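thoughts on my protein:
***
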Amino acid sequence: MHVLLIDDHEMFRQGIKFLLSDLDDQVRFSEAGTCEDALDLLDSESIDLILLDLNMPGSDGLGALRDIHLAHPGIPLSVVSGADDPELIRGAIEEGASGFVCKSSSSEVLVAGLKLILAGGTYLPRAALRGTPGPAPGLTEEPAGELAEGDAGHLSGRQADVLFKAIQGKPNKIIARELDIAEGTVKAHLSAAYKSLRVRNRTEAVYAVVKLGLKPPSPDRT
């Protein structure tokens, strides 16, 4: 696992590295203090996860997120920010982020959120889920457990595979390549998953998945 930390505060980058060092003895890190340096690193190295601070000197916050995501849409990106405004969080998700972790979170919450994102899931602070548009009435905040066939309106295994790659911000073309299926098949599975979750788009699907407590399909699921 190769993680890119984009933050202009070196002490915070060191703190994140220390917290994540227990996740896996094979985790390694690259660091960038600006979005320009980050894009250079992304062009030259293979990165598995991007952690981005939106509030950096000379950075346009969501604009920087958009630029990085457009340049490397296949890499999951999570915001790690000192802000926790629900509109900012929703904006980050709409620009392609697969998660949003607040710097003010306790170390336990921070690590748990990043573990979920590293595992291919989605993490949002609970405050972001209050009063947000998206899933139809009836969704609860009780965990639904492992996402597999039969959960969340009877999603099939392949629908779950496609859904979780989509909420990571991956375009249909990349999802099709990773799953070795046609792009039209990706669209069909995604449409069925949205219908099952009673949402209309990827952003609403992110909130629905987090509200339901759904987890990515197990890698060894047949």
The radius of gyration is 17 Å. Confidence is low (pLDDT under 50) at residues 133-153. The longest helix spans residues 183-197.
